[in-house]
Amino acid sequence: MNSRTFPRITPPASLAPRHNTQGKHRRNTGFSALLFCAVALSVHLSAPVFAADSSPVSPSASTPAQPIPATATHAPADPATQDLITKGRYVAAAADCAACHTAPAPGSAPLAGGYPFALPFGTLYASNITPDPAYGIGKWTEAQFVRAIREGVRPDGTSLYPVMPYPSYARMTDADLHALYVYIMHGVQPVAQAPQANTIRWPFSLRFPLTLWRWMFAPSPEAARASAERSFASPELARGAYLVEGPGHCGACHTARGMAMQERALTAQDGPRYLAGGAAVDDWTPPSLRGEPRTGLGAWSEADLTAFLRTGRTTRGSAFGTMEMAVHHGTQYLTDDDLTAMARYLKTLPPADTKEQPWQADSAASRALLSGSRLTQGQKLYLDNCAACHRSTGAGYAPAFPPLAGNPVVMNRAPDSIIHIILHGATLHGTDAAPSAFTMPGFASRLTDAQVAALATFIRQAWGNNAPAVNDMAVTRMRKTLAPPSPHGSPEENPEKNTVTGGAENGIHPPTDAE
Amino acid sequence: MTEKTLSPVDVVVVGSGWAGSIMAKELCEAGLSVVMLERRGRRSTARDGAYPSSLDELEGAVRYKLFQNPADTTVTVRNRMDQEAVPYRRLAAFLPGAGVGGAGLHWTGVHFRATPQDLRLRSHIVERYGRAFIPEGMNLQDYGVTYEELEPFFDRAEKVFGTSGEAYTVGGKATGKGNIFAPDRSDDFPLPPLRDVYTAHLFRQAAAEAGYHPYAMPAANASQPYTNPYGAQMGPCNFCGYCSDYACYMYAKASPNVNIMPALRRHENFTLRSNAHVLKVLLDSTGRKATGVVYQDAEGNHITQPAGLVILAAFQFHNVHLMLLSGIGKAYDPVSNTGTVGRNFTYQNITNSTVWMPPTRSTDQFIGSAGGVAIDDFNCDNFDHGPHGFIGGSPLWVNQAGVKPIAGAKATTPGVPRWGSAWKKAAIDTYRHSFTINAQGSNMAYRDVYLDLDPTWRTSYGQPMLRMTFDWKDNDIRMNRYVIGHLEGIVKALGARDVQYGMREEGKPFDVRAYQTTHLCGGAVMGEDPKTSALNRYLQSWDVPNVFVVGANAFPQGMGYNPTGLVAALAYWSAYHIRTQWLKGNGGPLVTP
Question: What was the ipTM of the complex prediction?
Fold first, then answer.
């Protein structure tokens, strides 16, 4: 069965399978976004951050230290297994497993499933991938595990929804998947808990059309391997390509999708559509990761990129929305070498839009704001709501408060992200390297749709920014459809829980940002 | 109500303000398991400092969102020992905080080091003026630690707080700026000073013209974006004026919440329990060793948390209260003049003077920060006290912290009605054209000013309330009047059209009904003599050596400067000696009396 060797080229629209699940929903806010992005969100996996001294340190013999175990695992593993667990935990971070396979409610058991993907035809809940034999994947053999990850096929032969980014994971090496398997089986606490049942409506609940989808759009492991092993200018670029195209599954969000929700390019080999920006995911628009000077990463240096992936914050902008989750759960845990490799690889991608001109600062808006007179509605709203942190120059106080001037996500042709963040705000969680959380408040209760549109338009066209205006209708539509802010997006801990314990819970969850 | 005993931990830290957060961070770094207990709830800048909804004067400064609810626990107050104390039922004179961050969340951010003189005030006074200069009944004492010893810890605290200021000398080398009375520093401030607001600028000019030595007040309000040694990030202050009583939405005002908690909560060996009101420290049968604490949780359960080391780091008077309730050390008795817990309770001697500038000068009082301009010419012993016969001093400053609408409307002008068009005219004039100059002075300790357990009133937890016996004394009244007397030259140089001097009046007792300051000090002070101090120079209880009591309770007398900088430095100092000495020893006293 797995000997299919379809060339993974973007098929013409007419080849889209008839069971095309999104059907007429495809063009709206991005079922794709929901479907794949959600997936792509992030996940993570954290190495234990602090090695607590397990010996009693108190001078009082009656009070032994009770350090919290770095990972609540089963029997102590032998050193070889322990090495694999450590490596597998790292692979899980690179592949961002936890974000999707952990329910969003604070305190949810890591990897026990339950993250909801709201699709037009029902809700899909991520599965429990802890080693519990009944509710998790404890009974899976390594071969079954590998096949599910690379090919999207469950042990019973049915297909996974391609919310699971197996077309990207197909590239993952045997060694990485072996380590990941060992980690899941021996480094993760089994949780005997069934995730909520999917509420996918018939006929979308049928799994066999997914098999057709797989045949059409997912690369075979052999093809994926061949692509991953193509020639690169340096081993570092090869590593960067592997991480970005494989476990990192960046394209799941940042590459546009076709009629059947398939990514229109899976690697840099597939041409300029790869990572040239995707449709909104959870109403956040993934920008281009290619070299466009305004709307892509053309102006970002390698150091900007590594800082962004490490901490979610740079002088050029901060992560928010679904990308924030990817940093929070995944990229922050990668090594400097790997982040540098990813950054260098991304910097090799030429702009998809070769005509885009570099952003150039224009002080007219700053002068108007500073003058304080004859202001437009957008300018007044900006002064009253935004300028305290983002300043009249739009420069912000990076990296605490990101710049709006020259920021690629502000200039994205699609206004989704900017409307979304004005309405609901966003939280940048603390990371190991940058432990502070920053939250931009939402303004949904304070601004009308017309005000949000005027404000967004001002921001998108001030200081040299040149994105299209935002109309009221777009705001109205988004206000209606936006899900309430996810608990993942809030630093508030469960108010019922009056204890915050530091460190990575179960070695998986980054700690809370509650103060 | 149920009772429960938890598994032992290495350390219990009572309180989550600056002192508790610093101690918890240091002891987590040392590898100890640390449980921090906070009597009230969790805080979050995202929620408590949301912009712009957190800029709510009614919620913050009138309904006291970040403060303790006196219906839960409060103190009783009286002026003299022959009076019956009554509960402080409505917050006014001082505002103890509640919730994670404690006073460190609601403070303004004025961040001074203590002066070398203040830390050894008794020795200094005796050396310069002789023993007879100390009035009868004044318990003038040294801290038992010198500026030189604390200097690295002042420096550490400033770097953690992201403090903005201008050094006078660094490593003995003059910078050409700063406070000429300031002691030498090993390093400059981590951030340049905040800019002078207009009124501070006027004060700077006028003070210099009057022959004094103005300087930019050190403020733990970041003048630029800043990342501290823990990796915690701050935004820059934008002078919005919502510092005191509020969580700073710019993440610019240093707080345990912004500057320490982000790093602290990442320690696996750290646990924070909120809504955990500590009732007492438990001692073993010898009374010489603490075995843990018992606290009441939100459901009313009594939980015992055993621990090998107990750090009391609650607000000043809560620390004293817990020591008294737990029997740590001997309670002070002013009659027999024995005991130390409750002794040397002090306050701060603040009076505010208002100047009205000509109508052409708009004072823009809505702007505010913890910065400002001060002179130290009348602080400490920076002037010859010989002819005046009092001890202590007072900096003078314009520390414009932002006058909000309700406060602006409540401001009164002498001789003007409090309603009607005359009021309206005066209120507008005062808001637009006046500003305040503060004299924030020292307050000495006296034999009959102290803290003890109230014989009558009990808290909602069924425990005796803490009783304050406090009044202003002649020494401090004369000090204040002397300093205010020197304001005239500055006011003249300002070109003010009117002035109202605020100064202490002879025979006018301490009055809890108007806000003065939350800078309460002493009651469990540090020192070198167990007969006059509850704590040794490392803030360790003389009597129960696995209890350290960290906070302004350790100050033997109240100084002119704000206390937080010294509280933070003492916390780092104490933690350093716990880490380097106490943990390596047998858990006994670090100082042998």
Answer: 0.92
Please provide the average confidence, as pLDDT, over all residues in chain A. Answer: 82
Query: What is the DSSP-derived secondary structure letter of residue A27?
Result: G
Quote the domain boundaries for residue B465. 3-167+175-582
Answer yes or no: are the C-beta atoms of A173 and A91 closer than 8 Å.
no
Whether the CB of A434 is below 8 Å from some CB of chain B: the reply is yes
Confidence band of A512 (pLDDT split at 50, 70, 90): low
Catalytic residue among B124, B385, B433, B519: B519
Decide if B467 contacts B432 (C-beta within 8 A): no
Place of tokens 């609650």: B314
* Whether B43 and A491 lie within 8 Å, measured CB to CB: no
A490 interface with B at CB cutoff 8 Å: yes
Please judge whether B276 and A65 are an interchain contact, meaning their C-beta atoms are less than 8 angstroms apart.
no
Query: Using one digit for the tens of pLDDT, what is the confidence trace for A188-224?
Result: 999 999 888 888 888 878 888 888 888 888 889 899 9
Chain B environment of A389 (Cβ under 8 Å): 51, 235, 249-250
**A514:B28 CB<8 A:** no
- Which H or E element spans position B200? helix B198-209
**Per mean pLDDT, which range of B292-296, B443-447, B488-492, B583-587 is the poorest?**
B583-587
Query: For every residue of A310-327, which 3-state class applies, written as one string?
Result: HHCECCCCECCHHHHHHH
Count of pairs with CB atoms under 8 A, one residue in A, one in B: 196
Calculate how close chain B gets to A55, using CA atoms only, in Å: 9
Which residues on A lie below 8 Å from B222 (Cβ)? none
Contacts of B272 in chain A (CB under 8 A): 499-502
Q: Are B242 and B150 in contact (CB under 8 A)?
A: no
- Residue B106 appears among annotated catalytic residues: no
Q: In angstroms, what CA-CA distances link A189 with A113, B76, B278, B348?
A: 13, 53, 34, 55
Query: How many structural domains does chain B have?
Result: 1
pTM: 0.90
Sort A45 into a burial class: Cβ within 10 Å, 0-12 / 13-18 / 19+.
buried
Paired residues of B343 in beta bridges: B523
* Amino acid A502: pLDDT: 61
Q: What are the backbone angles phi and psi of residue B277, rounded to the nearest 5°?
A: -95, 110
| Of the partner residues B50, B265, B298, the one whose CB lies closest to the CB of residue A502 | B265
Comparing CB atoms, the residue among A56, A397, A438 nearest residue B236 is: A397
Q: Establish if B480 belongs to a structural domain.
A: yes
pLDDT tens digits, one per residue of B474-486: 999 999 999 999 9
Tokens of A347: 């910097």
Widest Cα–Cα separation across chain A: 75
- Separation in Å, CA of A38 to nearest CA in chain B: 24
A439 shares contact with chain B (CB less than 8 Å): yes
Q: At what angle do helices A416-424 and A321-329 cross, to 10 degrees?
A: 80
Residue B589 belongs to a domain: no
- Rounded to 10 degrees, what is the CA torsion of A173, A178, A184, A185? 160
Q: Is A497 on the interface with B (CB under 8 A)?
A: no
Torsion sign, CA atoms B87, B92, B97, B99: positive
SS3 A288: coil
Q: Which residue of A has its CA nearest to B9?
A: A65
Please spell the DSSP secondary structure of B133-191, one letter per residue: GSPTTB-----SS-HHHHHHHHHHHHHHHT-B---SEETTEE-S-S-TTSPPBSS--SB
Using a CB–CB cutoff of 8 Å, tell me whether B506 touches chain A. Answer: no
Q: Do A437 and B265 touch (CB under 8 A)?
A: no
In Å, how far are A188, A255, A449, A467, A476 from A9, measured between CA atoms?
A: 37, 14, 41, 32, 38
User: Is residue B336 domain-resident?
Assistant: yes
Give the confidence band of A495 by pLDDT, cuts at 50, 70, 90. Answer: very low
Q: For position B422, which CATH number holds?
A: 3.50.50.60
